[in-house]
Each structure stands twice: as C-alpha cells, then as structure tokens.
Design brief:
Largest sheet: none
Helix content: over 70%
Strand content: under 5%
Order of helices and strands: HHHHHHHHHH
Structural class: mainly alpha
Number of strands: 0
Radius of gyration: 16 Å
C-alpha cells in the first residue's frame, strides 16, 4: 500500500503542477477506489496538498509567475472559508459529500469549456473582492478536500480577466492557504491519516517539479484542451463510482 501511495503521490504531483490543482481532484476519487472512505480520502488529500502546494509556491516565486502581494488576499479569505468547510466534514454524511464533489467538477468543466485561455479584458485587481471570493471557495475546499483551485481557476479566467496559465498557478498558490486551514482543523478533529498522507506527500514533491516544468513548455491553446480533458476524466471517474458503487 505504501508504494502505491508514493506512486499515486508522484502522479498527483504532476497533475497538480501541470493543471494548477491541489491534487484532491485526482487523489480523492483514486483513494476511494483503493478502499479508503470519503472522509479518510479527504484527510490524506489535505495532507498531500499542504506539502505539494508549498513546494509549488517556491517554484513559481522563483519563476516570477505572479505577484503574491495581491494574490495572497485570495488565500486570506480561503483560510476562513476552509475552516468552516473542514468542520462541516464532521457532520455531513458521505453520500452528500460525494455528490457535491461531482457537481463541483461538472460546474468547473462547463466554465472552462466556454472560457477564453487568453485574456479578453483587463485583469481585475480588487483585494476585498479577492477575500470574498477566497472565502466562498474556501468553504468548498475544506468540505471536499479539493484545495479550491477546482473553482478558483475558472473564476479567475471567466470573471477576473486572468490568463489561463497564470490562473492555474494562482489557484495552486491559493491551495497553500486553504490546506493549512483544512489540515489544522481536520487534525484537531482526528481525521488525518498521517502515515498515508506522508507517503503521498513524498511522491508529490517529485511530481510537482515535473508538472510545473511541463506547463511552461506547452502552448496555451493546447493547455486549455488538456485541462478540459482532465476534468472530463475526473468527472467520469467520480460519476462511475457514485452510480455503480
């Protein structure tokens, strides 16, 4: 099982760095197939995201992909929202969490499909709005263990004028904030499998370097196509699990 978790971590790290997602989008459905229940999967996912998102931040800071002085306000809101969401995990039933995860992926897929990967309007810089958006996304992040970039990226592209690659990088930066909040709350509630999470995190550190290297090599038009395909796969895996059990 440990080797499988490390391999999964490498794969999740690559997906995380390339698509700008925290990793829960990939790891939660796969962990369900591996025999973990939804709450165990969320706890392991949050542990992995805490490590991989921090590594990703260091890499993007070196590459100067974005200016964190404004982007951090998404994270400040995310911390508050993620605490609420993580607490709700304790009281919400498994079935509801799974169907909510499915609905979230579907929404994101639709928004990405109709979005333009190249900005068509001036980028919106509004720190209070960033906090508000971060808080709302943070609730879903803490509740579902998906980091928040699943919603953050299409919001940045569709409504705030961000380019797709920058939005993906900022989405992963946002994950570093929500992961801290979710990890702290879930740890307090005794819902983190530290051993399994550590094995996944070790693998994801390797994968995150590969994923970010790849995203800087691909053309923006092809990047959007890969992103849409990625969400279709996640949607299909999750739907199959819920419908067929």
């Amino acid at each position: 099982m440990e080797i499988m978790l490390i391999v999964l971590g490498i794969f999740v790290g690559i997906m995380s760095g390339f698509f700008g997602v925290g990793g829960g989008t990939v790891s939660v459905p796969i962990l369900l197939y591996m025999g973990f229940d939804i709450k165990e999967a969320i706890g392991i996912s949050v542990f992995q995201m805490l490590i991989s998102s921090f590594i990703a931040y260091l890499i993007h800071r070196k590459k100067q992909t974005y200016d964190s002085s404004d982007m951090k306000f998404f994270g400040f809101g995310g911390i508050m929202g993620a605490m609420v969401g993580a607490y709700l995990v304790k009281i919400v039933n498994h079935s509801f969490l799974e169907w909510l995860f499915l609905a979230l992926v579907l929404f994101t897929l639709l928004k990405l499909f109709i979005s333009n990967p190249i900005p068509t309007k001036k980028e919106v810089i509004h720190r209070p709005l960033y906090v508000l958006i971060g808080s709302g996304v943070g609730v879903f992040s803490g509740l579902l263990g998906v980091g928040g970039s699943l919603l953050m990226t299409p919001i940045l592209v569709s409504f705030l004028g961000f380019g797709l690659k920058k939005a993906s990088a900022v989405g992963l930066f946002y994950v570093s904030f929500t992961s801290i909040s979710s990890f702290t709350t879930l740890s307090f509630l005794g819902m983190i499998d530290y051993k399994s999470g550590l094995f996944m995190a070790v693998g994801s550190i390797i994968g995150i370097f590969i994923g970010i290297w790849l995203v800087h090599k691909i053309k923006i038009e092809n990047y959007k196509s890969f992103l849409v395909i990625f969400y279709v796969i996640i949607l299909s895996i999750t739907a199959n699990k819920l419908i067929l059990g």
